[in-house]
């Protein structure tokens, strides 16, 4: 199974990798100096004068120095493009930029220049510089030379190789799939029946796309056993306006069986049963009496008097555990803001403010808004600079669009800037 987390290389591996890189130029220099020294010629002119010819020493030492220079230049470009050196390959570490991508020529030049100066002043100084990430309060990620060059060093044996997997955030091919747009569906209002569009006949069963108009009042029949049909509204012969649809009620066909033996329908009085037309849509029975309500001009529907529907937020039934990459654990049962120094909007209700120390400034001041729900942790990016992503247990990375909430289920990882947290049940 592919590793999803990233691990910073330890100080020992960083120092050992650099010492391995220095073996070849050191050997070249020593060999050139020794061979050159062996070819020094000494000529005695007299009892008091001696002539020393060091030409070959200069030749051999100069050739060794030139080869060493070529080696360092090739190594410089190789590490800038791939993050690899002989020591990095042997110890399985890689040099990257702050996004986990190839560091670049300028960054490696600055980094190697500081290392060379430190070793030239004193060997001990170079060793201290190489292990200076031990004093980095931000997860021991960067040495002093890394901070100056804006580079990182990752252990690809213990974690993911960001150079081959799309950087710290993961490959872009794992972007979320666009979901189809939803379609708004309307529903019929009690006491109203559909209005057919001009030049179209209305259906006996209301559809979602139909408009609804008041049902014309029905006249009671003269006798309970007589079948009564609805008079159809004739369509005008003149031109119609699209803003004034014509109401057409389907005229039912007389049914002798229904006329002789009226059907008993629950919820209707005898007179209503006699006038009920089974082929015409009727609103469901309403004990409150609003189903048979017929609108009059200027009179509101009884349901409208109750005001708009209000939603009451439902509290989460669980508490989640946020496990940060530095080992810090935070129990959360509501909403929280995460960042270097998070603060909410005016009037925003927040249960916790979780401050994350980050000297590299990869995390924004207010980076994430998280909210606990029964489904997991809903994560929203608050217009951060370096972005955020949710990495599922299956390895799929979902990059966050600022302002859009994305669900992080239990077992998933949320990456924000160069930091990350895991979602678990408390």
TrEMBL record:
Residues 336-390 form the FHA domain. Residues 220-232 have a biased composition (Low complexity). Residues 185-307 are annotated as: Disordered. It is a multi-pass membrane protein. It comes from the Bacteria. Residues 198-208, 233-244, 270-282 have a biased composition (Polar residues). Keywords: Cell membrane, Membrane, Phosphoprotein, Transmembrane, Transmembrane helix. It is found in: Cell membrane. This is FHA domain-containing protein.
């Amino acid at each position: 199974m592919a590793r999803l987390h990233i691990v910073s290389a330890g100080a020992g591996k960083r120092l050992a990798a650099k010492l391995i890189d220095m073996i070849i130029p050191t050997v070249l220099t020593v060999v050139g100096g020794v061979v050159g020294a062996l070819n020094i010629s000494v000529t005695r002119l007299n009892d008091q004068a001696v002539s020393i010819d060091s030409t070959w020493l200069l030749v051999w030492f100069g050739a060794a120095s030139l080869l060493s220079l070529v080696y360092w230049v090739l190594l410089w470009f190789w590490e800038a493009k791939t993050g690899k050196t002989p020591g990095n390959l042997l110890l399985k570490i890689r040099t990257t930029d702050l996004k986990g991508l190839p560091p670049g020529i300028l960054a490696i030049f600055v980094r190697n220049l500081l290392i060379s100066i430190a070793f030239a002043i004193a060997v001990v100084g170079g060793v201290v510089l190489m292990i200076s990430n031990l004093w980095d309060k931000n997860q021991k990620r960067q040495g002093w030379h890394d901070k100056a060059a804006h580079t990182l060093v990752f252990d690809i044996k213990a974690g993911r190789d960001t150079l081959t997997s799309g950087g710290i955030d993961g490959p872009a091919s794992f972007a979320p799939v666009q979901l189809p747009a939803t379609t708004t569906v309307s529903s019929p209002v009690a006491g109203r029946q559909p209005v057919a569009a001009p030049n179209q006949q209305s259906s006996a069963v209301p559809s979602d796309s139909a408009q609804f108009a008041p049902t014309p009042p029905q006249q009671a029949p003269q006798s309970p056993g007589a079948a009564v049909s609805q008079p159809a509204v004739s369509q005008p012969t003149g031109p119609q306006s699209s803003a004034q649809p014509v109401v057409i009620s389907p005229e039912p066909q007389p049914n002798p069986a229904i006329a002789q033996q009226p059907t008993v329908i629950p919820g209707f009085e005898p007179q209503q049963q006699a006038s009920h037309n089974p082929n015409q849509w009727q609103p469901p029975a309403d004990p409150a009496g609003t189903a048979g309500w017929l609108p009059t001009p200027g009179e509101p529907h009884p349901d409208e008097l109750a005001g708009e529907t209000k939603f009451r937020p439902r509290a989460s039934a669980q508490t989640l555990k946020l496990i940060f990459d530095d080992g810090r654990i935070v129990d959360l049962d509501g909403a929280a803001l995460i960042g270097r120094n998070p603060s909410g909007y005016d009037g925003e209700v927040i249960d916790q403010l979780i401050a994350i120390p980050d000297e590299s400034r990869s995390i924004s001041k207010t980076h994430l808004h998280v909210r606990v729900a029964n489904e997991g942790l809903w994560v929203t990016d608050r217009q951060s600079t370096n972005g955020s992503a949710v990495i599922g247990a299956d390895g799929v990375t979902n990059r966050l669009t600022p302002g859009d909430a994305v669900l992080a289920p239990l077992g998933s990882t949320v990456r924000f800037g160069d930091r990350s947290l895991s979602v678990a049940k408390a």
